[in-house]
């Protein structure tokens, strides 16, 4: 009975989250589609034709996996941070706090909502990329696994950001000053083989590099890093962030007085 | 019989050092219509916040129908519905979606949720607004929406924090009738209110809290019997030029047509009217200066301030 109650509660949270981002599709689904199309045209077609090849592939082919991953990261993070902070700000988070839904189900529900938007936008960007290049899938399992796990990881990050946020400025700080630089320096637009040895070492400390490269391996079959190590890093981050987020939620940080 | 709510030694000290609750004990019987009264900042909302798990307690225990909030929170939470003072729903969602979503948090299937939502939206006069975005509702409708949402899982205990604040008189009366019917059907109701007339009309038992301590906790009848003086307002048929002499009564002239008379419980009104008759003072109408509970409330709180 308890399992059934929890599964209904989980489905309720996930469907509410999906309804939310579909209701405001002009803010959630349209902007990444337009931005990524501009990236494809400007970096892929116009500048890319002058760059030539990267790791043995056309520049357009090289950047498409990175741009898809960038969309997944920013949207899974952005969905949870804005949704949960809005719930705090409007106080409707209290609806769920007074109910018997366990903290773990609340967390998983919000994370799956973020994953749904991340994967949805990733799919839209993938379909758009087909107008610019022929996308081959080298290893479907790697593609699906790394996209899903990356979306989970960044949705968890968004949740923690929302818990600590006290204003809408706090919601924007991490994506602007942490997430965007890490994504741009995470091998989306270049192979780290191009960097001097010192900066290659520095780049290895960027977790996004592992996700982008693993995804690129799944599509093209080339990667700058070892896949099993990459999956290991992602899983360690997921376990650490999940445990931290659950602890914050159970103690009522930022929600209960 | 298991109590609907049992609070023991409840303390709350906020991070800024403010001691909102100083170890209160409170018990509410099943089926009761109970009022928790007190001035602003007395600790009413903190108490209800702890019971509804929106505020972390510093010490003490809370049992809802025998289920301890610390060790059996699922059963405790399933037994109660909460209507907070501030609007706390997603203003951009539709009325019916808000209520049905809440049912999902309690594990109700979609079919059960839809049936229950339709029942309460109709009962609370929101049926025509079911597809309206919540922010488009009037203040009174928003309050009723929060009541429908709190009742969606048919709780045995309904907690309302200032349920009729900002609601017009007609609507307030209809909400009172709704709550009375709900109570008669077996739901235990606890409310806080600033309208003492509301508490006097609806509630059987009353607790008065002030500065984090319970000052009185008894039946309404018992509480009102403590009121040994009442002030009556007499509207006079003819104007008075000077204050009349009424032996044994403390009186005050307000304008030239209104007489305020303080009457001790032991005195009664016959003697007052006999003296008025002797002096040929005609009374056109008479009423209480304030509602009786309000008078008692003010005296209790004033006494506390003086001490």
Account of the protein in words:
The complex is a heterodimer of chains A (257) and B (307). Chain A has helices spanning 2-23, 25-28, 30-51, 59-89, 93-97, 103-129, 140-164, 168-184, 197-203, 207-220, 227-251; strands at residues 53-54, 57-58. With 257 residues, chain A is mainly α. Chain A has one domain (2-251). In chain A, strands 1-2 form a two-stranded antiparallel ribbon. In chain A, a hairpin with a 2-residue loop joins β1 and β2. The mean pLDDT of chain A is 91. In chain B, the strands form three sheets. Chain B has a six-stranded mixed sheet with strand order 6-7-8-3-9-10, sandwiched between helices. Chain B has a four-stranded antiparallel sheet with strand order 2-1-4-5. A four-stranded antiparallel sheet of chain B has the order 12-13-11-14, with no helix packed on it. In chain B, α3 (95-105) crosses α4 and α3 runs parallel beside α5. Chain B is globular. At the A-B interface, α1 and α5 of A face α2 and α3 of B.
Brief summary of the model shown:
Chain A is mainly alpha-helical.
Mind sketching the topology for me?
The complex is a heterodimer of chains A (257) and B (307).
Chain A: H1 2-23, H2 25-28, H3 30-51, E1 53-54, E2 57-58, H4 59-89, H5 93-97, H6 103-129, H7 140-164, H8 168-184, H9 197-203, H10 207-220, H11 227-251
Antiparallel strand pairs in A: 1-2
Helix pairs in contact in A: 1-6, 3-4, 3-6, 4-6, 4-7, 4-8, 4-10, 6-7, 7-10, 7-11, 10-11
Chain B: E1 5-13, E2 19-28, E3 33-37, H1 44-51, E4 59-64, E5 67-68, H2 73-78, E6 80-83, H3 95-105, H4 110-123, H5 139-151, E7 157-161, H6 169-184, E8 188-192, H7 196-202, E9 205-210, E10 213-219, H8 220-225, E11 229-236, E12 250-254, E13 258-264, H9 270-278, E14 283-288, H10 292-306
Parallel strand pairs in B: 3-8, 3-9, 6-7, 7-8
Antiparallel strand pairs in B: 1-2, 1-4, 4-5, 9-10, 11-13, 11-14, 12-13
């Amino acid at each position: 009975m308890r399992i059934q109650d929890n599964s209904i509660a989980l489905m309720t949270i996930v469907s509410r989250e999906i309804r939310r981002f579909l209701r405001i599709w002009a803010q959630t689904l349209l902007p990444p589609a337009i931005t990524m199309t501009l990236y494809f045209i400007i970096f892929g077609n116009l500048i890319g034709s002058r760059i030539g090849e990267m790791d043995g592939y056309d520049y357009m082919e090289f950047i498409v996996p990175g741009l898809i991953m960038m969309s997944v990261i920013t949207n899974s993070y952005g969905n949870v941070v804005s949704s949960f902070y809005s719930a705090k700000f409007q106080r409707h988070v209290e609806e769920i706090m007074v109910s018997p839904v366990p903290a773990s189900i609340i967390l998983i529900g919000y994370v799956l909502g973020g994953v749904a938007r991340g994967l949805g936008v990733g799919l839209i960007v993938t379909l758009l990329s087909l107008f610019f290049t022929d996308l081959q899938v080298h290893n479907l399992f790697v593609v699906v696994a790394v996209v899903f796990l990356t979306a989970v990881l960044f949705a968890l990050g968004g949740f923690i950001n929302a818990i600590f946020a006290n204003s809408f400025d706090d919601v924007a700080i991490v994506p602007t000053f942490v997430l965007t630089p890490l994504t741009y320096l995470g091998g989306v637009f270049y192979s780290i083989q191009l960097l001097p040895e010192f900066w290659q070492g520095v780049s290895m400390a960027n977790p996004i590099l592992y996700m982008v490269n693993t995804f690129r391996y799944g599509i093209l079959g080339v990667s700058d890093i070892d896949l099993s190590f990459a999956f290991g890093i992602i899983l360690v981050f997921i376990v650490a962030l999940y445990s931290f987020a659950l602890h914050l939620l159970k103690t009522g940080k930022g929600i209960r007085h | 019989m298991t109590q609907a709510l049992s609070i023991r030694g409840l303390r709350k000290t906020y991070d800024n050092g403010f001691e909102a609750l100083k170890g209160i004990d409170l018990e509410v019987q099943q089926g009761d219509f109970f009022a928790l009264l007190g001035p602003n900042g007395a600790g009413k909302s903190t108490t209800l916040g702890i019971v509804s798990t929106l505020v972390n307690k510093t010490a003490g225990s809370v049992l809802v129908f025998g289920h301890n909030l610390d060790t059996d929170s699922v059963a405790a939470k399933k037994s109660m519905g909460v209507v907070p003072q501030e609007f706390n729903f997603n203003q951009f969602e539709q009325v019916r979606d808000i209520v049905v979503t809440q049912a999902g948090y309690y594990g109700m299937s979609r079919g059960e949720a839809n049936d229950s939502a339709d029942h309460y939206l109709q009962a609370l006069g929101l049926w025509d607004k079911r597809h309206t975005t919540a922010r488009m509702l009037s203040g009174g409708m928003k309050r009723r929406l929060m009541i429908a949402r709190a009742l969606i899982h048919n709780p045995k205990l309904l907690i309302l924090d200032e349920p009729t604040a900002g609601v017009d008189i007609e609507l307030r009366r209809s909400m009172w009738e709704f709550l009375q019917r709900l109570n008669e059907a077996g739901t235990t109701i606890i409310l806080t209110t600033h309208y003492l007339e509301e508490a006097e009309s609806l509630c059987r038992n009353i607790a008065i809290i002030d500065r984090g301590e319970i000052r009185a906790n008894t039946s309404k009848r018992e509480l009102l019997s403590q009121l040994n003086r009442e002030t009556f307002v007499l509207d006079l048929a003819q104007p008075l030029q000077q204050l009349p002499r009424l032996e044994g009564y403390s009186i005050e002239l307000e304008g030239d047509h209104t007489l305020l008379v303080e009457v001790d419980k032991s005195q009664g009104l016959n003697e007052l009217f006999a003296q008025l008759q002797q002096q040929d003072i005609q009374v056109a109408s008479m009423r209480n200066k304030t509602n009786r509970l309000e008078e008692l409330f003010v005296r209790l709180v004033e006494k506390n301030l003086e001490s």
